[in-house]
Write a structure and sequence with these properties.
- The protein is α+β, with helices and mostly antiparallel strands.
- It has one domain: Roll (Thiol Ester Dehydrase, Chain A).
- The protein has two helices and five strands; from the N terminus they run βαββββα.
- A five-stranded antiparallel beta sheet has the order 1-3-4-5-2, with helices on one face.
- A hairpin with a 3-residue loop joins strand 3 and strand 4.
- It is elongated.
- The chain starts with a strand and ends with a helix.
């Protein structure tokens, strides 16, 4: 599942380039869409666990400019005991140029204690 964003005035810096801090928002939107499309919706994703971001890294390869349409695609890179690493790639829709790539490490936690819990089996089955 890919998520599409158009770079708007509110996304751009004075040079008309998408501000780098916005990519965490673009990526969060893409992860949300991806999870929803896989059926993980509602409170605690419907699996009794919350997801928290433990680490995120972004390598910028090019710039998205005002008016560009960008496409972000997540994919599972690794599923561990209590965490999942998701690879993300953002490209420009018009020419496919790679804009940014990286990964996000997500830890599954108990909704009440916020202590790590095993990755829910439904996550492993549907996303792994």
């Amino acid at each position: 599942m890919a998520t599409v964003h158009r770079i708007r005035y509110s996304d751009a810096d004075p040079q008309g380039i998408a501000f780098n801090g916005n990519y965490t928002r673009y990526w969060d939107d893409a992860l949300t869409d991806w999870l929803w499309d896989a059926g993980f919706t509602g409170e605690h994703l419907g699996v009794g666990a919350e997801m928290v971001t433990a680490h995120i890294e972004i390598d910028f390869r090019s710039s998205a400019r005002l008016g560009d349409v960008i496409v972000t695609e997540p994919s599972v890179e690794r599923i561990g005991n209590t965490s999942m690493t998701v690879a993300l790639r953002t490209t420009r829709q018009s020419d496919g140029e790679l804009i940014a790539e990286g990964r996000e490490v997500i830890v599954f936690v108990d909704p009440e204690t916020f202590r790590p819990v095993p990755v829910p089996e439904e996550i492993r089955t549907r996303l792994g």
